[in-house]
Amino acid sequence: MGADEKKLRWYNIALMAFVAVWGFGNVVNNYANQGLQVITSWVLIIALYFIPYALMVGQLGSTFKEGKGGVSTWIKETMGPNIAYLAAWTYWAVHIPYLAQKPQAILIALGWTFTGSGKVLDQYSTLVIQLACLVIFLLFVWIASKGISSLKRIGTVAGISVFVMSLLYILLAVTAPALTGVSVATTNMTLSTFIPEFNFAYFTTLSMLVFAVGGAEKIAPYVNFTNNPTREFPRGMLILAIMVAVCALLGSYAMGIMFDANNIPADLKMNGQYYAFQMLGNYYGIGNTFLILYAISNTLAQISALAFSIDAPLKVLLLDADERYIPRKLLKSNDKGVPTNGYILTTVLVGILIIVPALGIRNMNTLFDWLLDLNSVVMPLRYLWVFAAYIAVMKMADKFTSEYQFVKNNKFGLLIGGWCFFFTAFACLMGMFPKVPAFTPQWYFQITLNIATPLVLLGLGLILPSIAKLTNNK
């Protein structure tokens, strides 16, 4: 692509990245964890973590502009194919808890769509609900195996609708006290209302913040399509950071207007998004209009995300796989190019993660919160490979060149890369500690699952090459 064909400007980069990274759930989930103290946390996480992370991604994308595998390509070029396989496996494995929770999100969204309430699931046991989730998942495995192009298009439209409504919520909620005279739910705000207590409980919530701002590696391929990437890409990333900061800060304050930060509803993570739009409609005298529109859009977006996430991460792992690491039977595809045995492996792992927790967690809200927290522990593990690749590039700066560089000084680059790697690992480790009363049977059950899940998923990736060596030779 010639320089005259590089059409993307800094504002294009900022908007594309914003849509890929940000979502309303980021506001709700972190407010549920920290209340209005999350405002200070947002400032710190964006300045000390998110901005360096996004700019590192820019340099890696520019350095390996011919690579099509994203993080896997970066690792392959810097650390070799063995480590690249582990990076690709991690990218797929971290989606297993994500897939296990999507059916829950669909059921909740459907409940709000048809009844205008989040109490529909309360009349059923967690095991019955999780069995229903398993049926939904199996249905979408079948749908994904038949091709999901139309579902992707529906999901894109629904996703944009959810995104626009999330921004509309922030605008209308922040201005509601002035426009409608509604009282602010969080009273007696002082400086201490916004300053976190940096204790053990606080550190267990860091993984949700990292989970919220992660995913910037999705924009790496666009670095080289940017007009003057040395200047405009970092400008776009800084604008992205400002946009995320504004939405995080105003969104959190808007939540404080609706929900008392000193008395946060126990089911805010599960139902908070719907409560927010229901209350917003009541503020402006239009009943459940906002709620229904959001619930329908979110239902379709969740459905599309489920089908897409069954298919896409698996293809990233298998379609360009090296048979030294993946058993040949796992690579088998049908006439539609669907890796059928890969689908079976995904189904078995997700099925276990859907059913087993329901045997020990008997409250649906607790189960939902636990699985969301597990996602915040497991999903950021893939970001570690981004920082590992950046550190490797800094160590071999004489070998790799790029049109855009985050920092010129290699030692400073190593320091920043190391900081982001350490912080991500620390956040994931602390996130493993459950948010229920310590040392109770529930606590032991949850922490066992929190530790076992990533170990099993990543451990399976470690033993798969040995299985491949035995079975492929036969």
TrEMBL record:
Name one cellular component (GO) term.
plasma membrane
Where it sits in the cell: the answer is: Cell membrane
* One annotated GO molecular function: transmembrane transporter activity
Question: What membrane topology does the UniProt entry give?
Answer: Multi-pass membrane protein
* Gene3D superfamilies per UniProt: Amino acid/polyamine transporter I
What start and end residues bound the annotated signal peptide?
Answer: none
Positions of transmembrane segments:
12-32, 38-61, 124-144, 156-179, 199-216, 237-255, 275-296, 342-361, 381-400, 412-432, 444-464
Could you tell me which Pfam families the record lists for this protein?
AA_permease_2
Keywords recorded for this protein, A-Z = Cell membrane, Membrane, Transmembrane, Transmembrane helix, Transport
Q: Which InterPro entries match?
A: AA/rel_permease1, APC_superfamily
Which PANTHER family does its entry note? AMINO ACID TRANSPORTER-RELATED, GLUTAMATE_GAMMA-AMINOBUTYRATE ANTIPORTER-RELATED
Q: What is this protein called?
A: Inner membrane transporter YcaM
| Source organism of this protein record | Brevibacillus laterosporus LMG 15441
| Name of the coding gene | ycaM
